[in-house]
Amino acid sequence: MIKRMTLATVLLIAMLAGCSSGPDYKVDLTKPLYIQKDKAMPFEIKVTESKKAVKGLKVAVELSMINMDHGTYKAKLTEGKDGTYAGNIQLEMPGKYEAEFTLEKGGKKTKKIMDLEVKKPQGVASINGKWITNGDLAFYKLINKLQLEINLESAKKHYNGEQLKEELAYIKSQEKMLDDKNQLLTQVIRLRSMAMLAEEKGHKANPMVVEQEIQKVRKQYDQYASVKKLIKQFGEDQFWTKEREQYQSIVLIQQVQKDLLAAAKKDNPKAGEQEIYYEAQQKYEDLLVSQVNSLKIVIL
After folding, report:
1. How is residue 40 annotated by DSSP?
2. Same domain, 250 and 223
3. What is this structure's pTM?
4. What is the number of domains present in the chain?
5. Are the C-beta atoms of 94 and 64 separated by less than 8 Å?
């Protein structure tokens, strides 16, 4: 009896020693997971130990659906900055998964298991959980197209000969960028990010000011037959609803720009108007970069 108890005690001590000697890694997803049809989705984690980033790991992950037998999905994750590890993994469907991570360093392997949910996306990107949809991109593509049509008609009215030829060639080159999804996304992200910053600073979009801006743009668009035709093709009610939403953001951003101009004038009372505008623009771009970096942006 004594020998049996001694053996059991030794085994227990050995087990406890084995558990306590291993690293106590904490694994967290850095962004939500969204299924992408026929495409591998980005998968990134952050590994910490005692709240400090863990570097130099070899990381592999194996996913399997909970309560459904669809096999397993494996991926190796490459080390990034500050304890992040990323890769791509292609799944068949959204749902709840179990993820088993193998974390290796110095020849020692540690296993970590977590439950996670892979969701069906509601758009092509999100900012702090608010989606940017294909409809949003279609609207921005149209806005860009309308501006090109205005430039085209204006060029034909004001130029001729070689100068007109050069203007038309430039406009034609810009048309090739209309389908650039990354450029459209960048436009949306810039606008929405700064509008969010304006709201954080306590600014509000005055409905009367928004309506005044809408009337200005209506008046401009009504001057160009090609522009009115494109709006009609898109759907006039849908277009002006989206335009009003956009101008709510624009009016918010204008207030941030006014703040920056006022600050630039105060800091440089002897500076000329052009220098003031340049200084304010530089500060605006710095603010934009800082704001974008502070937001949780997911691009699919």
Report:
1. P
2. yes
3. 0.75
4. 2
5. no
